[in-house]
Amino acid sequence: MSETTSEEQVPEPLLEARRLLDEGMLEQCLACLKPYWLNNETDTRAIGMFGELMKEAGRNEVARKLIRLTELLDATPDTVQPQSDGLTLASSSEDDIPYALFEAGFGLIDLRQHELAVMLLERCLKLMPNEPTVNYEIAFSLMSLSRFDEAIAHFKLAMMDSEDFDTILNLSVCYTLTRRIAEAKTMIEKLTFLAHEEDEQRELNHRKIVLKRLELLGNKQALTPRDWQFVLYGGILLRTGEEHAHRKEDFMSIASTLAILKGVLEGLRIEYEAVEYYNPNARPLARILGELMEIPCDSYKGPHRPDGALLVMAWATDIIGPHEAFIEHMHTRSIFSYGLTWSEPLPVAPEITGLLADDTIMPWEEARSESIDDIVAQILERARDLDCDPDILRETQEAVAYYDSKRELLVLNNWTTFPDRPEYTAEVQKPKAPK
Fold first, then answer.
1. Mutual orientation of helices 132-144 and 148-159 as an angle, nearest 10°?
2. Model pLDDT for residues 240-287, shown as the tens digit of each residue
3. N or C: which end of the chain has fewer CB within 10 A?
């Protein structure tokens, strides 16, 4: 039977998760409950509580599936035998354990809880060997967790049933991210015969460009986040290295990043007539940039702006979409995002990114004695003082030298070649920590 114990034997993490859930502290409950469930996958108390958590978070459909799975597992012996001939998911009965595992796992994929999804879907696959749909969904989650070699193995199993566009596309992505260029080319050749819809043709063209950029860096032994940002999205990353991945930005770090931005635009000979901001949280950044570049600053005026503008996003999640006006790559507007997270998928990839960092916090988001005007003035003063700073000049020159030779494959200022900005799907990899 599934694990059940008396109340006195409830493990401490579950007791703590229950307390947090009862007090409405949902994020803290998730942080407590998730690792316990991953380490105790057959404990139905964890599954049921996760269902309760999802219900409290307004995810009623996933909650229903998890709670139903809990009921089925509690009522069923652990000796459920694998299906010898596979199973058609769509025709499974409501009481079928494999189907319930699949439904719950698929729901967790929608919530981007990929570790939990893999755990449930692997249990499902043990009961339904070689089921293509389950293999595909496991592969998708493994790919989202950057476990590309494992994902490739499952995508190949899914492909044995049908060589459909999505499976081949995701295989090409995995091969690209593991720098297996020959295999990626083979998948892209297959996609040529499978791309029928307009969005499929657009994705095929994007994968061809990605492979072209990757081949340009083919002799480089290890790719940096700057390399991957260029390869995958044709974007500019101003700063590289973990030393700039601040969780909390200060006046000097903001000033230095904006000083580099100004220098890179000058070095690449790209001029703007205005700076604008989309979200009020980006207004201070836009004001500083406008002063620094000596051009007007105002708020976003819609998709049909007549003059060339640099649209500032304070952070990645400001781009909430999809926004057709942003997806279209117009000659009058470029997007600058101060910080992209390592893991947050977005509908649009900015042409220029300040840095890659999780949870970028700006000074004006905190309770401070200074007014926003004072903060802007202090950052602007520092940015101007950095014009001749040798470290900033070196970083700027390195960035200009890197991108100047790649102008034809950059999205920035290249709207005829790239009429649509690519989707940002958080494929850029964190550098591995030294052993």
1. 160
2. 866 555 557 889 999 999 999 999 999 999 999 999 998 888 999 999
3. C
% of the chain with per-residue pLDDT over 90: 66
The CATH topology of domain 225-409 is Rossmann fold (3.40.50)
